[in-house]
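Weekly modeling sync, notes
Attendees: S.R. (lead), two postdocs, one rotation student

Agenda item 3: backlog of single-chain predictions. S.R. asked that every request posted to the team notebook include the full sequence so nobody has to chase files. The rotation student volunteered to paste the first one in as an example of the format we agreed on. Action items at the bottom.

Example entry:
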Amino acid sequence: MVDMEPQAERYCRLLIGLSLTLLTLGIGYLVVFQHYTCELPSDCGRPRSGVGCFPVLSRERLVLGLTLQWLFLTPSRTQCMSDPHVAGLCGSLRDASYTRVALGHALDEAAAFGATTTRIDLREYELPMFDPDNRDVGDADRLQRELRDADSVILASPMYHGSYSGVVKNALDYSGFDEFENTTVGLLGIAGGGFPTGTVEHLRSVCRALNAWVIPHQAVVPNASSQFEGGEFVDEKMADRVAVLGKRTVEYANIEPDPPSFRSSENVGGTD
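Predicted structure, as returned to the notebook:
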């Protein structure tokens, strides 16, 4: 996979490079021209060189200007890119959910790479079955706000009948372009059986209809009951796949958006 540097990161590097160039030129000016003296009257304030008389600032003013330029025009990484915020939506209501455990590992990895994180546990939200005529019920506003505030979202769902869970579908129905358009989305699927890919494949299709930017890397955990012990993965490779998903949500949190997909341009939301 081609490592696509986010647009904000490229902009940050450009500003730093430009600032360093200006600083270098300023230092060079001091080194090269400081020994020239003005051959005109002493109140001229200009040095003479072989090609003419150039205006000059005093050395002290030039140093002060370069210092201010360095302080105010050179952005640090923190100034260029504030810590991304990653929200993880857990699509299982079961108390001992493997989906919740796996999502926790992904969010922990995102936090380890500098993100702030929020786990959206749908057990704690009052979300009746979505009715287009009554959209603003229960905790709909709270859900939408937490999704909108995220730079990246991890959608984690168990596999039910070859697809994702009904509570995830209901949460997505309460959401729309305001919550997902141009948002980075990571997909995590958990299955009791050995074939969990239907969950993430169907979620990827939904996300493209909302014009989200879906991370190419996806994590799926088959045979979930045998994959965990004491809240930890027993398979290191499986743990690594989930950890990489968390890492990618931070790396691509500010990626340059793709043009709208055809699917999203035809998506009018829940109107019937």
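Discussion: group reviewed the output briefly. The two ends are 40 Å apart (CA to CA).
Action items: rotation student to repeat for the remaining queue; S.R. to check formatting next week.
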